[in-house]
Design brief:
Number of strands: 35
CATH architecture of the largest domain: Sandwich
CATH class of the largest domain: Mainly Beta
Number of domains: 4
Distance between the termini: 18 Å
Strand content: over 45%
Structural class: mainly beta
Mean pLDDT: 81
Helix content: under 10%
Low-confidence stretches: 1-22, 438-450
CATH topology of the largest domain: Jelly Rolls
Number of helices: 4
Length: 450
């Protein structure tokens, strides 16, 4: 059954929306609503098929009216040990096989092997080994919800406003906090971290508060007597980076060095947020709170985890790139040198060979002792009408894609032809560069079919 009448765009999203099915895929039609069900490939060209229990036959949705596809059950793949960042800003978790003759060979999350020339790569993050999960939620029996909030299939749903509070066990000095949220443009989110007060509005609490809306991203250090110090006040990041929903917030805490790092959807907001000495001991409270308010649609919290953080990498990951004229290598102790990557070789012990103009012979470093490799050359802006987000915080900009045989088939401007299993896809959305082409398309459909 195809959508012959444009008025159905207003009716079907409402009917599907009543399902509130946490396991449903989602097709967003921009300003014209959403459809929920199971996204499937279509034999009809230019169409995406959606199967729903509310319709006897699958729905065929015109591809050029779709702003995003969100898949409800992406595969929870094992975390790969390295991350590649390309010259256009795209990134992917990978496993490095080797590097020789200026060509990197790596394995993708879906177990395909690729060769890539060095001049197409911006950096390799090497110290991303698996972390131990110390706490995970939401937990219905342990979390306290205010009126207007509810648990729904492992997800906390907030109405127009609400509050959730919970406690975590004592944490090591270095840990990573990850929070996955879905909130609308008119929503305001406040997260209180490591508070020593079970009451979120206490004026006598210590801890950190992260405040977000569509325009502002703030982080404060809470002190006694209602005082606070602004550690971060960014009015541009969320809008400039065009952060999409759902939103993954990651805060890395290094109490020994009084340093924090903040990432949103895999993008670094600030690599070195310092908690001043004059604030006293770093917050170590066990209380966490999330408050939100919005005028229209509900906010959802679907994951909250705390994991340990490899202590050797705490300083080196925070290093900033010093030059784009040469390759740069940082080790886990924050030592660095400039020069050129010669090789990454496998054997009894995987190692990195790096040449330095001030050294008579190339430097050899055990692979596990390296943290980051930066490659020479300037970066470019991503180009493509669509953004494919994969499990493990992968981001790929592409010009076109097809759903076929359980795969997303596309051609990436740097990596080349890709066939990504649907089980690895979290979302396919239009890039902001293509939005101006997308909305006129919707308007033309509206006037033609009305």
């Amino acid at each position: 059954m195809s959508l012959k009448c444009f008025q159905l765009f207003y009716v079907i999203p409402l009917a599907f929306g009543l399902m509130h099915c946490a396991s449903a895929d989602n097709i967003s039609l921009g300003v014209h609503g959403q459809l929920q069900g199971t996204i499937e490939p279509s034999a009809s060209e230019g169409m995406i098929q959606l199967r729903s229990p509310l319709a006897a036959d699958p729905l065929l949705v015109k591809k050029d009216t779709i702003s995003s596809l969100k898949f409800s059950n992406p595969k929870q793949v094992a975390k790969l040990p390295q991350v590649i960042r390309l010259k256009n800003g795209d990134q992917l978790p990978i496993e490095i096989e080797s590097f020789s003759n200026n060509v990197l060979r790596f394995i993708s999350p879906w177990n395909t092997t690729h060769d890539l020339e060095k001049n197409r790569i911006d950096s390799l993050s090497l110290g991303t080994s698996d972390s131990k999960i110390l706490y995970s939620g939401p937990k219905q029996k342990e979390w306290n919800l205010s009126d207007g909030c509810k648990f729904n299939d492992g997800v906390v749903q907030f109405g127009s406003s609400g509050q959730a509070s919970w406690q975590v066990p004592k944490l090591p000095s270095r840990h990573i906090i990850t929070c996955n949220l879905d909130f609308k443009s008119d929503g305001n989110i406040k997260i209180i971290i490591a508070s020593d007060s079970a009451q979120p509005y206490s004026s006598e609490m210590s801890g950190y508060t992260i405040t977000m809306n569509q325009e502002t991203l703030q982080m404060t250090r809470n002190l006694k007597a209602g005082k606070k110090i602004y550690l971060l006040n960014d009015q541009k990041f969320l809008s400039q980076e065009k952060i999409s929903q759902p939103l993954s917030l990651e805060l890395r805490v290094d109490q020994d060095n009084r340093m924090l790092q903040l990432f949103i959807n895999g993008k670094s907001v600030r690599n070195s947020i310092m908690d001043p000495e004059q604030t006293g001991e770093m917050p170590k409270g066990v209380n966490y709170h999330l408050m939100c308010n919005g005028r229209q649609q509900e906010t959802q919290l679907n994951q909250f985890t705390i994991s340990d953080w490899n202590s050797n990498l705490a300083t080196s990951i925070a290093e900033k790139r010093l030059s784009t004229k040469t390759d740069m290598l940082y080790d886990i102790e924050s030592n660095h040198c400039s020069g050129e990557l010669v090789a990454i070789t496998k054997g009894a012990e995987k190692k990195i060979t790096f040449s330095n103009p001030h050294s008579p012979a190339p430097i050899e470093l055990p692979f596990q002792s390296a943290a980051i490799l930066y490659f020479s050359g300037e970066t470019t802006k991503p180009d493509g009408s669509f953004i494919i987000r994969t499990s493990g915080a992968g981001t790929l900009h592409v010009t076109e894609y097809q759903l076929n045989d359980g795969m997303v088939k596309t051609k990436h401007s740097i990596i080349g032809d890709l066939a990504i299993p649907l089980s690895h896809i979290e979302e396919i959305s239009r890039s902001w560069r293509s939005i101006f082409l997308f909305f006129p398309s919707l308007l033309s459909h509206h006037h033609f079919l009305k």
